[in-house]
Amino acid sequence: MAAYNMTNTKVLLSALTSAAMLISAAGCRTLAAPSSSEAAWVPAKKIKISDSKDATWQSIRGQKIDTSRPLALGDLVDIALRTNPSTKQAWENAKSVQAVKLQMEGRYYPKVSITGEGTRQDTKANIDMASVDYFKYGPGIQLTYLLLDFGGRAADVEEQSQLLIAANFQFNRTMQDVVLNVETSYYGYHSAVAMLAAAESDLKNAQAAYDAASRRFEVGLAAKLDMLQAKSTFEQTLYSLENARGAVKTSKAALAKSLGYPADTVFEVMEPSKDVPMAINDEDITRMINDAIDQRPDIAALRANLRAQNAAASSANSDLYPSLSAGASANKNFYKYYNYKQPRDNDRTYAAYLSFDWDVFDGFENLNKLREEQALANVEREKLIEAEISASSEVWTKYYDFKTAVKKLEYSESFLNTSQTSYELALESYSNGLNSILDLLDAESKLSDAKSSLIQSRKDLFVALAELAHATGTIYTGGETKND
Question: 126 with 171, same domain?
Answer without folding.
Answer: no
